[in-house]
Design goal:
Shape: globular
Number of helices: 10
Number of strands: 9
Strand order of the largest sheet: 4-6-7-5
Length: 299
């Protein structure tokens, strides 16, 4: 049960209520977290688990050969256009270059003290040699790795992956948060930027600095969650930078305050807070005739 907007601009998690219901009904409960370990998992780890009091046993990192090729320097993927042959034909060099992004995500999960399992969501265009590169890199980074062919074989195609998750659940773990709530806001952001994103540091705009100082000096905000706002297309704030960017700093331009949810949202870069919403949305042209009940303006 997804409980909110995307993880790049909000929490991006399934609901705590759904998790508690699932834990009462099944032996294994799977909860979803939007995007990769830098965005979705970081918020699951340091926000949702802190609010819920629940501790996970395993984190699954779903990977595709296509995504790793993109992070390895593959051509830009454009919605609605056919994929470049780099993504549909064997290209071991792109996979070799791209697995560093996956390895970074594995390292983030391991910092939480839980067991990572890499799921290779395999498609018919993927070759054995490409998958072998991913498995070797994942296992060297300390993760289990299994293929899932459920798109082709249904549930039977996911058994290898399911067994890997069960095995990981049976191992011990040492789950802990990245930072304590008593840590000041700017220190939290600095830890997230360096330990999760791989940044060299954080640069605060004058406006963001003023807000951060106000928030840090007001005790009523001390237990508010740190909900980062950052692109999901890169470890950095720049969606163009793929793989594992080096030699960069995270710019924070503003801090949004959501008192009802108890969220403090440092905004990195120029990310849009309402993606896909035009300045003149279609709902403004939709109306209902109160006498006939006829709806107008839909088309």
């Amino acid at each position: 049960v997804h409980a909110g907007p995307f993880a790049n601009i909000a929490v991006g998690q399934s609901s705590i209520i759904a998790d508690r219901v699932g834990l009462k009904l099944f032996d294994y409960h799977v909860t979803e977290s939007g995007f990769a370990a830098d965005i979705g998992f970081e918020k699951f780890w340091n926000v949702k688990c802190r609010f819920s009091g629940l501790k996970p046993h395993v984190s699954v990192l779903t990977s595709t050969i296509r995504a790793l090729k993109m992070h390895g320097g593959g051509p830009k993927v454009v919605a609605g256009k056919a994929l470049d042959e780099a993504y549909t034909k064997e290209n071991l060099a792109l996979v070799e270059n791209g697995v560093e992004n996956m390895v970074h995500m594995i390292s983030v999960i391991r910092k939480a003290g839980i067991n990572p399992v890499v799921c290779v969501n395999r498609f018919y265009t993927d070759t054995d040699a490409e998958v072998a590169i991913v498995k070797k890199a994942a296992e060297a980074a300390g993760a289990r790795c299994a293929e899932s062919k459920h798109w082709e074989k249904g549930g039977e195609g996911a058994l290898e992956f399911a067994d890997a998750v069960i095995d990981a659940c049976e191992e011990g773990n040492d789950f802990d948060f990245l930072y304590p709530l008593k840590m000041k806001l700017r220190d939290r952001v600095n830890v997230i930027a360096k330990e999760v994103y791989g940044a060299d540091g954080v640069d605060w705009s004058p406006e963001a600095t003023a807000k951060a100082e106000m928030l840090e000096n007001d005790p009523k905000y001390a237990d508010f969650a740190t909900m980062m706002v950052k692109t999901h297309l890169s470890l950095s704030h720049d969606p163009v930078k793929k793989g594992v960017p080096k030699g960069w700093r995270l710019p924070i331009r503003d801090v949004l305050i959501y008192s009802g949810a108890k969220f403090l949202c440092p905004c990195a870069g120029t990310i849009s807070l309402m993606p896909g919403t035009g300045s003149n949305p279609a709902f403004r042209r939709i109306d209902v005739d109160p006498e006939t009940g006829k709806v107008s303006g839909l088309f």
